[in-house]
Amino acid sequence: MKLLLATLTVCCLAAAPLASGGQRTYPNALVVLGAATAAGYGADPAHPYSISPQNSWGTGTNPAVRSVYSRLLELNPGIKGHAVNLAHETDAGTELDELAGQVKQALTLTPKPQLVLVNVIERNLKCDGTTETDFAGYGAKYGAALDALTQGLPNARIVVVSQWGSSASYVKYLESLPVGARLKHAGKGPCQLVQSPTGQVSAERTDYANKIVAGEQAKLRSACRQHPQCRYDGGAAQRVTVTPADVSLVQFSPSSQGQAKLAAAEWAVVMAALS
Known about the structure:
Strands 2-1-3-4-5 form a five-stranded parallel β-sheet, sandwiched between helices. The chain is globular. By secondary structure, it is an alpha/beta fold.
């Protein structure tokens, strides 16, 4: 009888709802929302221009990645099979429109997600010299999505992720490429870091892109602060040091090794959010 009671106690603790504070408990279901990075885009070298959910830092099953889902599974077997990745590769500038649709999908999931990972900021920025600095508009659109998410999933914890990879280390990665590889994504746009036809990395364009990312992330942080169940990662993803092996063949999304670094960085944030 004592053994039976002990078994039931462990079961109930694993399946417990998220605590409001203090004691850490683990979710029985999670969902990932966002764009290319969250979807594992490019992380499978055999299919570099496709999403690769098995390599996603959030929901991946590749043991080498050690995703947030796989780490939670070690702590709570009740989450097995209840990790949904709604992220997908999008055109630059459409991430928040896609997010709104993903939020609607997330609210229909069964079981209801108790942990939501939101990863919308990409290195592939919308940047054509027109509306990319409309941070007020960006914040309003993101805030509306977050409002809908928190209203529909009031008991869920939400983790909002910064842009992956430090700017300085990403520039070093670009500079380490042969000129021909650098020219693959070169151009004359204000956020195309590599100039065409020289293949040089532009400090001016890099600074401009960094200002856009900083403005957008400020809005993510501000919106998150309006909701007690939301936690911004404080730039954890952005502090990841990028090496050539961390970047996929498409040159802006993480490889499986980069996804593993991102999973490790965000795991600490998730643990804090679940406290």
